[in-house]
Amino acid sequence: MRLPRRRFLQLAGGAAALPTLPRIARAQTTWPTRPVRYIVSFAAGGANDTTARLIAQYLSDLLGQQVFVENHTGAGGNVGMQVALSAAPDGYTIAFVGPNNAISATLYTKLPFDFIRDSVPIAGTVQLTNVMVVNNELPVKSLTELIAYAKANPGKLNFASGGVGTSPHLSGELFKAMTGINMLHVPYRGGAPALVDLLAGNVQVLFDNLPGPIGHIKQGKVRALGVTAAKRAPEIPDVPAIGELVPGYEARVWYGISARKGVPAAMVDKLNHAVNTVLADPKLIARITQLGGHPMPMTPAQFGELVASETAKWAKVIKEAGIKAA
Description:
Elements: H1 5-13, H2 22-27, E1 36-40, H3 47-63, E2 67-71, H4 78-85, E3 93-97, H5 99-107, H6 115-118, E4 119-135, H7 143-152, E5 157-161, H8 167-179, E6 183-187, H9 191-200, E7 205-209, H10 214-218, E8 222-227, E9 252-260, H11 265-279, H12 282-290, E10 294-295, H13 300-321
Parallel strand pairs: 1-2, 1-3, 5-6, 5-7
Antiparallel strand pairs: 3-9, 4-7, 4-8, 4-9, 4-10
Helix pairs in contact: 1-13, 3-11, 5-13, 8-13
């Protein structure tokens, strides 16, 4: 049974009440004394992985211990999250969190974990947008032309994403539902292999986090038609927000860090402080901006509230659209 939102937020702010082993309690004052695993549930080279590795690099420098990324792909990010939530709650395994975790809570009915119940929020990291890009051979140059083409050629367009239940997947499904077009979803194990197939012409449309294809967009290798955020992205200002053409359309993208429930409050606080410290570094801010993102510093409770609200939002979309996991 999933915990109600209020209870989740209580856990976010009151981890100190959780029982901990004496060994873990003693380690709180010296953490970290060894490398920290950062579980990323998507393929290396994609937008999620790229952003996580940036954060890990700056955290490593700040903490004096390596924060190293481990990629565990599959099931829309749920394989990796299961790895993270099976680790000891000692502060040495953290997990990359994104919209897919809020989506999966409803999309998958038989997960081996309940993300809200089994995790503790630590920090927000980055806010950005998804982007819709098309292969240059597709004879459309705008959202209007894409919609018209799709309606004239029902079922002939394939749209790729980094996996079932990911934010790009649901961004595409929401676009389909709100425009009444028919496109076949083709899931991949991460945005990077999906982009490779888009470039090769094996799929015609791709929804991806903006950091993934931004280089190819600027080089003219793919054509960007719209961003999923409510406003245009400063990095590609000539690309409209999808909501400009489809009123009410918006799909937020956010990243953060969580860990298995039971991590002592002192470690949660240290991790949160470390993350917020590196997010204030001008050099990291510049790198995040180059990728089309913006720092999103938060307290653990604020990040928990974001996860809870996004979980409720996507539950409504999934149920109304009748979307099923593969």
